[in-house]
Amino acid sequence: MIKPRYIFLAIASCFIVSLSSCNGGTQTTENTQPPAITQTTETVTHSGHSSKAKININTAILSELDKFEAKLGVPALSNKIQANRPYGSPEDLVSKKVITQEQFDQIKDLVSVQEVELTGEAKDVDYMTKMGLMKGHLFVAKELLDKNQPKQAEPHIGHPVEEIYIDVEDQLNERQVKEFKTTLVSLQDLVKSSPKSAKVNTDFTASEQSVDGAIAALPEAQRTKPGFVLQVVNGLLDAANSEYGAAIANGKVAEAIEYQDSRGFVIYADELYKGIGTQVSQSNPEAHKAIETSFTELKKVWPSVIPPSQPVKTPPEVTQLIKTIELNSQKVIDQSSTQAQS
């Protein structure tokens, strides 16, 4: 059973507040939220370069909390963290007996109870990444429906509604995107009640077109700019890495849903990169070659939407491929930024 995921998407390293690594300011305000938790909202107006994303344990979705589950090797930890909300401080993970002090010491640098308010390009990257996550979910749902596996497809149709839509709804309204939550919910209900109905394909197409329409709310020039797209790619790969780490246990694919989620995110990230690959190859051929080669190897990890009996690669091996893409992406992003300033 998929639990509702109270939404916050901590997108990759490109959004993390890093006061020392970037120019640009952050503004801090305090507000009190029940029950008596003081949270800090940091307004991010630029892209940070910190490699460690702090995860807000009060609002993060399960795919973000999966980073802790994968790192500590504690089954169902993501759900346990969610069930014990709210937290007044990161240390509450220990005082509420969610994890031990020893386990907390391993992740304490990644834990936060702060909200991050994104502005400027960072907000646009966050928006596009959330749309990309929706695309990834729907991609694997369609694969499973085509294989006559509606029960397996159900959670992936539900994820865009349960995980993402609420979190991005304000941005959709700001960008004057027509409401499409109803379309997603209708598809989810239809697959549950009448998976063999001919209307499934019609509703599925409508859902995909709705997400594509939301993506089109961003200017085309921005959606085709390598520096922008690579930040989105990194966000999708970061989410895929977390999901894959949570999917593998004891040398086997223990969680099919997480395996499938990670597959969808990687496939869409690769699709986005192909759209800018020619531009990157011209501006930085070395980085392009490294990214392209790593994507080729990365996609082999998911030979099918149905998990293999044995994982093709271990989570550390997947992490290394993703790090290679992210490091080379950052070279292109930094190069683009330097050229824009000169």
Principal-axes shape call: globular
Structural class estimated from helices and strands: mainly alpha
Distance between the termini: 53 Å
Cα gyration radius (Å): 19 Å
Largest sheet, spatial ordering of strands: 1-2-5
Low-confidence stretches: 1-40, 44-51
How many strand units? Answer: 7
Largest sheet: 3 strands, mixed
Strand content: 5-15%
Number of domains: 2
Let me know the average pLDDT: 85
What is the H-and-E element order?
EEEHHHHEEHHHHHHEEHHH
Number of helices: 13
Key structural traits:
DNA polymerase, domain 1, disordered N terminus, two-stranded parallel ribbon, 61% helix, 2 domains, 342 residues, 3-stranded mixed sheet
What does this structure look like?
This protein has 342 residues and is mostly helical. The protein has two domains: 13-118, Orthogonal Bundle (DNA polymerase, domain 1), CATH 1.10.150; 120-177 and 214-341, no CATH class. 61% of the residues lie in helices and 8% in strands. It has 13 helices and seven strands. The protein has helices at residues 62-72, 77-83, 92-95, 101-107, 120-146, 150-174, 181-193, 199-215, 220-223, 226-247, 256-283, 285-299, 315-341; strands at 26-33, 37-44, 55-56, 111-112, 115-118, 248-249, 252-253. The strands form three sheets. Strands 1-2-5 form a three-stranded mixed beta sheet. A two-stranded parallel ribbon has the order 3-4. The chain has a two-stranded antiparallel ribbon with strand order 6-7. Helix 6 packs antiparallel against helix 7 (181-193) and helix 11 runs antiparallel to helix 12 (285-299). The radius of gyration is 19 Å and the shape is globular. The N and C termini lie far apart (53 Å). The model is unreliable at 1-40 and 44-51 (pLDDT under 50).
